[in-house]
Amino acid sequence: MTDLEIVRVAALTDNYIWLIHDPVADETVVVDPGEATPALAEATRRGWTIGQVWNTHWHDDHTGGNAEVKAATDAIISGPAAEAAKIPTLDVKLAEGDSVRIGSHVAQVIAAPGHTAGHILFHLAGDAVLLAGDTLFAMGCGRLFEGTPEQMFANMQHLATLPDETQVFCAHEYTQSNGRYALVAEPDNSDIVARMRDVDALRAAGEATVPTTIALERATNPFLRAADVQQLAKRRAEKDSFRG
Ligand code: ZN
Ligand code: FE
């Protein structure tokens, strides 16, 4: 278990911004601030001072608040080197093998092209925490705007090797829609049926369904569970046009 405090901040239509706080070092990171106001308000409410922004990819719903967070806090903004031209607010350019820190906690940067060409993930292995951006969702994966099924399959294969207990912090509340498709993709998977009962109850109560875990995704995520590139490609194409 991690001693980091990780707080979900709802933003825009269905985005989640994550605030990560290390109480020992008294440091705070904001992950993918698609807008600044709710993230700044939550940090202020908790008495936390934002010192860093970590971006997973260039899309505006993940970086739109960068400039305003920087103006308010003077935070250092780190994100994908490969997308630096599209993230003009970037201070630190990251690629596979790099790492960033919050206090004494280390986040390894994992390249995960597919949703965008330069998408990165932040993996705090010592904390069993994965900041998954728009690559791995609860029962889903990111749409392939700039990459290939081969790339996303490789991402899924790699993430499936992370420890069971790894908590996965996704950037959107897409679980119910993903789950409706998962029931179609794997009609005989009783773990998906059981999970959807929980998800439907949470959503009916207006509650969030993330973070998730690698163990739960290994059991119920039709993209993480895809047997080969062809199956992932087929499922991604079906989900793109799925109206469940
Ligand atoms: Zn995106
Ligand atoms: Fe997004």
What does this structure look like?
The protein is α/β, with parallel strands linked by helices and 244 residues long. The protein has helices at 37-46, 60-63, 66-73, 149-159, 175-185, 190-204, 214-220, 229-240; strands at 5-11, 15-22, 27-31, 50-54, 76-80, 92-94, 99-102, 105-111, 120-124, 129-133, 136-137, 140-141, 167-170, 212-213. The protein has a single domain (5-241), classed as 4-Layer Sandwich (Metallo-beta-lactamase, Chain A). The protein has eight helices and 14 strands. The model has no long low-confidence stretch (mean pLDDT 98). A six-stranded mixed beta sheet has the order 1-2-3-4-5-6. Strands 7-8-9-10-13-14 form a six-stranded mixed beta sheet. The chain has a two-stranded antiparallel ribbon with strand order 11-12. It binds zinc ion and fe (iii) ion. The site of zinc ion has 4 residues, from loops.
